[in-house]
Amino acid sequence: MSVLSGKRILLGVSGGIAAYKTASLVRLFIKVGAHVQVIMTPASKDFVTPLTLSTLSKNPVYSTFFNQDDEDEKWNNHVELGLWADLMIIAPATANTLSKMANGTCDNLLIATYLSAKCPVYFAPAMDLDMYKHPSTIASFTALEQFGNTIIPAESGELASGLSGEGRMAEPENIITFLEADLESKLPLKGKKILITAGPTYEAIDPVRFIGNHSSGKMGFDIAKSAANLGASVILVTGPTHLTVNHSLINVVKVTSAQEMYDACHQYFNAVDVAIAAAAVADYRPKNIAEQKIKKNTDNFVIELEKTKDILLSLGEAKKQQFLIGFALETENEIENAKAKIQKKNLDLIVLNSLQDEGAGFQKMTNKVTFIDKDFKIEPMELKSKEAVADDILNKVIAHFYE
Ligand code: CTP
């Protein structure tokens, strides 16, 4: 999945011949799952039509402060547009528009929106080779970079003037690659390795039967996705679940039993920075697994169980640099029991689920958790989607590295 997926992108188009390429650019943004709104300078409409960009972006295109077509929406609010965006890109950025951006010459909607935008701003210059090298243009680049804007350098090749050299707007595919690489390099968990356990474990009774539990695995999968979207490399050790995930940063390791999950976790634990145990691991397993299917020959049938290894406890014992997060599922004396688990399992943070809270627990789309850290600071959270709980957990991880 692209790091641009779900991002709100504001594309500012200024008036150069390369504006025709913005049709492809918008199409590529939509293809990777971004939301796009387009602002055009009046001059750019000579090179590509608003209808084209509106159709491709699936949104109205803005170019003036006043909207002649819509009685209800007379005023195109540049502040709202600026605040809507996760990132703004001016492409093509002509010498004229770059100079206005550098000097705050606010004579069109694009520049007003640029001045209102609080998000990261990128610009992809497009002009003739001598204009590109002119000290005045270089001064605009320098000023914009000092403002914190990022240049997507022009490429070399044949120019509209017939000359050949540097000044062509970067190709739309290259703009996408540039943005993805730049955003990925700035993700807060870039370079961090995170081990996550998820799902139930199945403990075999005989070749066809097992002891299991109702865990869907959703909480662990959501944590894995949230971590990967923040740039972490994830090893997701999961028990049997119908869930799947397709993310280049998530390596899924499928296991069945508690012992297999234990072995997989210890294989990776030494090399990770963070471990999050969200699996509902069986606490007991049949002492003997029948080699053949058990026949119903008796009225009563007793299975002798033995304890499984507590994976989280063993990770707490092996812990060195790792930030270790566990879950606690409690039905009574929740806080006290959770605090005891923090100490016993040598955790940095525990995520407490109380089954007394409505909306929390297995097979639900929501969760209501309380965070308790190793200093016993207690932080109750609202009932929210498991995705949002996953984001909260990852915010704790980010805080650990940066605060
Ligand atoms: N856990 C684990 N291995 C086990 C049992 C639990 O790694 N064999 C982990 C879970 O993934 C969870 C945490 O330990 O992060 C707490 O699980 P929980 O079921 O609440 O508690 P237990 O430690 O099993 O204790 P009890 O069932 O007695 O409350």
TrEMBL record:
Residues 189-398 form the DNA/pantothenate metabolism flavoprotein C-terminal domain. Its EC number is 4.1.1.36, 6.3.2.5. CTP binds at D283, K293, F327, K341, K345. One of its GO terms (molecular function) is phosphopantothenoylcysteine decarboxylase activity. GO terms for biological process: coenzyme A biosynthetic process; pantothenate catabolic process. Pfam families: DFP (PF04127), Flavoprotein (PF02441). The keyword Ligase applies. Its cofactor is Mg(2+); FMN. It comes from the Bacteria. The keyword Cytoplasm does not apply. Keywords: Decarboxylase, Flavoprotein, FMN, Ligase, Lyase, Magnesium, Metal-binding, Multifunctional enzyme. InterPro entries: CoaB-like_sf, CoaBC, DNA/pantothenate-metab_flavo_C, Flavin_trans-like, Flavoprotein. GO terms for cellular component: phosphopantothenoylcysteine decarboxylase complex. Binds 1 FMN per subunit. Residues 7-177 form the Flavoprotein domain. Residues 1-193 are annotated as: Phosphopantothenoylcysteine decarboxylase. Residues 194-403 are annotated as: Phosphopantothenate--cysteine ligase. Gene3D superfamilies: CoaB-like, Flavin prenyltransferase-like. Pathway: Cofactor biosynthesis; coenzyme A biosynthesis; CoA from (R)-pantothenate: step 3/5; Cofactor biosynthesis; coenzyme A biosynthesis; CoA from (R)-pantothenate: step 2/5. It catalyses: (R)-4'-phosphopantothenate + L-cysteine + CTP = N-[(R)-4-phosphopantothenoyl]-L-cysteine + CMP + diphosphate + H(+); N-[(R)-4-phosphopantothenoyl]-L-cysteine + H(+) = (R)-4'-phosphopantetheine + CO2. Catalyzes two steps in the biosynthesis of coenzyme A. In the first step cysteine is conjugated to 4'-phosphopantothenate to form 4-phosphopantothenoylcysteine, in the latter compound is decarboxylated to form 4'-phosphopantotheine. Catalyzes two sequential steps in the biosynthesis of coenzyme A. In the first step cysteine is conjugated to 4'-phosphopantothenate to form 4-phosphopantothenoylcysteine. In the second step the latter compound is decarboxylated to form 4'-phosphopantotheine. In the C-terminal section; belongs to the PPC synthetase family. In the N-terminal section; belongs to the HFCD (homo-oligomeric flavin containing Cys decarboxylase) superfamily. HAMAP family: CoaBC. This is Coenzyme A biosynthesis bifunctional protein CoaBC. It comes from Flavobacterium flevense. The gene is coaBC.
